[in-house]
Each structure stands twice: as C-alpha cells, then as structure tokens.
Design a protein that fits this description.
Structural class: alpha/beta
Number of helices: 4
Distance between the termini: 5 Å
CATH superfamily: Isochorismatase-like
CATH topology: Rossmann fold
Number of domains: 1
Strand content: 15-25%
Length: about 200
C-alpha cells in the first residue's frame, strides 16, 4: 500500500521517556515501537508526506494525576526528561510536534485535543495539508492511540493503525486487545510495515 503524500499523514503518538521502560508510567515493552516507527517515519519522509508527533505536556498540577484526583502517577511534566521523546526516535525534518494535556482540568488522551507550537489545533493542521488518511502508531494502544484513532474516524478520516508499532498498558488484563477490537469495529484498518 503506497503512501500518498497528497492525502496521507503519519502520527507518532506519545513516544516519550515516561511511557518507556524506566519511565514513571512505563508501557511494557514500550520502547520496542521505536525502531519500527523509525522505519515508517523514514518512508513518510522519503515520500514527502507529513509527519506529526503528539506528546503529553502536562503542568505539574493537573487533575490527570492521582494527587489531584486523577488516575495516573505524575508523568510527562513540561520541561522534564520524562516528557522528552524517546532518544532513539528518529523524526524526519519538518515533523510537526503537537502537545496535549496542558489544561489542568482535562485528561486529553487524543491527539485531536493537541495543538502545534503556534496554537493551531491538530484537526486544523491536518485539514490545511489536505490529509484524508492517518497512519497511527505509538503509545499506548488502550489509551492515547485508541482515543486518537476513534476521534480521527469520527471526524471522517480513514485510519490505518500500525499493528507492529503499538503497545498497551493493560491496566486490566486484555485492555489492549479490547482496544484493538473497538478500533476495528469503528472502521480502522490494521497494517504492518510490509504493507507500506
């Protein structure tokens, strides 16, 4: 399946240190998505198709964190090493970073709740480039990947989930598999590197 630079975009979801082994909210084997995503990113770069990288970018105090009523330990706090992208992630020149979770009143799992450094919403940035189909990989399958995929489908975009470049938190055993089923049922297709 060829990449079409006039309609395709790659979305690297939250490949940040805190979600990788050794991080404060580590996804089991989360770092294993990095070399696979690098190969997807390389192909998108060669095709001159847009690449977006979403990141959690939380303030120190947010209702997302357990200390303030949320579900999670502190993670991806603005300006910390944990919030940085995994050092092995190789993003093509021109990759657009979109940040989410800055509002202390919002959880913001989906990249569709993110904005670029100029404050342009992710959906608007996609529309400005004529994007009709998203290729989505990253962390974690059962949270930010799922939320991004479902929002993309709801907004009328086609979605290809990179089955070989996602990993789940599995807070409850089977969460990742259930998330995959939910994305499929909503209309997402699942692809691997060999199909690109």
């Amino acid at each position: 399946m060829a990449i079409d630079a006039t309609r395709d975009a790659l979305v690297l979801v939250d490949v940040q240190n805190d979600f990788c082994p050794g991080g404060s909210l580590a996804v089991p084997d989360g770092d294993q998505v990095v070399p696979v995503l690098n190969r997807y990113a390389e192909r998108f770069g060669e095709a001159r198709a847009p690449v977006f990288a979403s990141r959690d970018w939380h303030p120190p105090k947010t209702k997302h964190f357990q200390a303030y009523g949320g579900a999670w330990p502190p993670h991806c706090v603005q300006g910390t090493r944990g919030a940085e992208f995994h050092p092995g992630l190789e993003m093509p020149a021109g990759t657009v970073v979109v940040s989410k979770g800055m509002d202390p009143e919002q959880d913001a799992y989906s990249a569709f709740q993110a904005e670029d450094e100029r404050g342009i919403a992710f959906a608007r940035a996609l529309a400005a480039r004529g994007v009709k189909r998203l290729w989505v990989g990253g962390l974690a399958t059962d949270y930010c990947v799922k939320a991004t995929v479902l929002d993309a489908l709801r907004s009328g975009l086609e979605v290809q989930v990179l089955a070989d470049a996602i990993r789940a938190v599995d807070v409850q055993p089977g969460d990742g598999e259930r998330a995959i089923g939910e994305m499929r049922e909503a209309g997402a297709r699942f692809v691997t590197l060999g199909a690109v």
